[in-house]
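Help!! Second protein's tokens look totally different from the first
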Amino acid sequence: MKNTKNTSFWKIISHIMIPTLLLAVSFRDNLHAQQEPISTMFWNQYSYFNPAASGLFYKHAGTVTGHDQANSQDWKNRSAFANYSARIKALHGGLGIHYIFNQLIHTNNQKLMLSYSYHIKLGEKTTLAAGVSAGILNMRLNPNVKLPTQMPDPSFPKGKGFIMNSGIILKTNKLNIGISATQVTETPIKRINYTPVRHYFAVADYAFNIGNNFQLKPQAQLISDAIDHTIAGNLMAIYKEKYWIGASYRSTERFAFMGGWDILGKFRIGYAYETPPAHGFIFKASHEVVLGILLK
């Protein structure tokens, strides 16, 4: 008898996930900056930029993150992420809801998305997940801000459009690898002459146990729009699966330091400080705070 569960899974792969795998294809020559907001503690936003994470790591996971970067002019770079996902056995995966706010120079972006992730067991401790999310991008431009070159036309200050993300994750008890694409459809918002450009994400982490109480976890993240690329490497030290500190380096020549506490293994509080770009003349240091509820 044909395994209908596996057939359904590979249909998801072939019909939805193909854009995710085309990392080196579809170059764009009209883009001069990445559009997706950057998070220092990016793993707390995993289910947003890779919907395959919905319900994969926790039975229930809800996080709220605020990111603020100082600047030398009257320009702002602020982001807020609110993510909730739950594992639902009857759906063989998880569902999630995501709200993203990003204020960058003259633009205010808001995204509201719903996600679904399909999980397939490959072994006792190995799961392969494929996910997709879809929603609305609401963009507002502030024509009172003096714009850099190659930015959207502020003649019409509001617009809405459809957006979709997709991704896959291989999860084991120690190693996690994921690739994903956001803004997959690149649906233009004609009212403001703006096109959300496809972005690609790749994330990997591995947990090294040191004795019974300590764990070291190196992490890496790649973000690309097929023109600009940002790479971040992070090393976390975790004590008793509760207290964690870490340091990271981003390819834009920025360092970050972070720490947090997973209280009772259920409630997360964390803070990160990221140094200014080495050659930045506008934006300075950034601060990020995360609060979360994580139930396994």
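Here's the second one for comparison:
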Amino acid sequence: MKWSNVAAWLLSIASLAFAAQPALAKDLDKQVVLDTQNNIRSLLISISFHSLFLTATDQTRAAKALQAADEAIAFASDPLVPMTNKAHALMYLGREAEAIDLYRTNVGKAMGNRTWQAVITKDFDQLTGQGLHHPTMDKVRPMLSPIVSKN
């Protein structure tokens, strides 16, 4: 089975689980529901990121990456991780202004022990390393660089 088919299948299962979650919450322990939400969120983040590596020639895959990122954001108490994937998907979909706005809006925010800038830079390096460089990356990189004081 091709990765794109697996990603689509997993995305549809995650979407169904997301839709069914409120009904399940009535009958399940709150911790079980929370664990399930976290597992689905992690799956969606993974799907959205790995789908980006398939987007060079296929806008449908970029749209699926965006959908998975949006659904992961809906699950997230801290949406920054899936928001990185959303920004990347918007970039590959040609929605440059929206992507740049997301990149710019989150500059300076902490993501665990790293910064938004460090995470985006690493993602750009990984995508570029796989031959998926996008011209928008060249516009975004300067805003990710540390600001050096001239004093």
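Reply: Different proteins will give different token patterns, so don't panic. The chain has a mean pLDDT of 77.
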